[in-house]
Sequence to fold (248 residues):
Amino acid sequence: MPEKDKSVNTSELRGRLREARSVFVLTGAGVSAESGVPTFRGGGQAAVWKGMPFEVISSAEMVGRDLKLVWDWFDYRRGVLQTCRPNPAHDTLARWQTRFPRFTLATQNIDGLHAEAGSHGVLELHGNAWRARCLNCGSREDVRETDAGVRPPICRACGGLMRPDVVLFGEILPEDVWVEAAERAATSDVCFVVGTSAIVYPAAGLPVAAMRAGAFLVEVNPEETPLSEICDVTLRGAAGEVLPRLEF
Ligand code: APR
Fold:
């Protein structure tokens, strides 16, 4: 059977969006690329910092071995994020939250740009680079409010050491966030996968669960990913250009 040309099926997509009761969107680093946030695996090579692959520096093991160095890495990343503002992809998704009876935005990004664009209740699957979490009592603080000079920051609630409130390699996702994302994906009519290489699990499993539950699956990515073959529509382009075109 000839390969269905998934790029032209947008008329069916428009129909599905008109009828949709529940829309689920999963985003990855690509949705922030046009804001200047570097992707992890764009251009075929993984990010490296001070000669260390990011999987090493961004790991639970490194929190145990050198928490100060982990903070240096996230201070560097926040330095990059400082100058980045939401782009039309973030803005479009913020508008969609009132467009559908039920709308869920789950992101793998820790940059906070969806919230900055006005999205509420974003399911931050991998945490947030602007937050710290106490290793002792678990309380969370906004890094911008803690004393930048002290690294690792000290918890104001219990005096314990704080770590970045980000899911690191070797760690599981926050259970409450994951359970809600999985439930919403599996009960969606239309599921968008925007700007992710779809190789990091369990997040990459959400669109598969949505598809298996009958959702119409749409990928927005300039490049092919392992999910492309199971999608009903693949829109090859930059999210900041493609998503605004889906408003009608
Ligand atoms: N619009 C849409 N997609 C884009 C754009 C763009 N402007 N620019 C790049 N992309 C696509 C790339 O083609 C690639 O498929 O975004 C994807 C980015 O992939 P990754 O860098 O692997 O990022 P992501 O999928 O979010 O990584 C998942 O891995 O490193 C961990 O925790 C980290 O959350 C991250 C997770």
